[in-house]
What does this fold into?
Amino acid sequence: MPQTQRTLVLLKPDALQRDLLGEIVSRFERKGMKIIGMKFIRLTSQMLDEHYAHLSDKPFFAALKEFMMQTPVAGLVLEGYDAVSEVRKLVGSTNPREADAGTIRADLSMNVPSNLIHASDSPESAQTEIKRFFNEDELFAYEKITDRYHVGEGI
Ligand code: DAT
Ligand code: MG
It folds into this structure.
């Protein structure tokens, strides 16, 4: 059975600068993901040390942090069936030139680190990342008329 999950998305400074926030949010809306949190976040060096801890020994780490702090990022929490893997599927591989056509990164970007978007890579990291960037009172449970098409009795 599919699991209703929540996942964390960050629209990176290149998405903001290239006027792609709407295009990217629209792809998640069209898929049937429910937006339950959405705000601008000014990332700090400390937040990025935590968020990208798995990359701290890489030579590009400092440049990656600098890139992520160029502008505010747009944070979203998305909810839906198997949201973590479904959102990663829509996002595509880390390197946009290796990502499958049809994905956000393949269709709209060319390079790392300018690959437009972050999305949690497992249910465990989704939980940690949602807590890192959103307070409980910034997340909204609400009924949507389209819930009947996107969740419910289906497989
Ligand atoms: P993903 O964003 O697909 O989860 P990741 O967690 O391995 O990938 O890396 C986080 C970000 O770090 C990635 O979106 C872009 C940047 N990055 C990864 N590998 C890189 C590299 N070899 N050179 C420059 N930036 C890189
Ligand atoms: Mg990652």
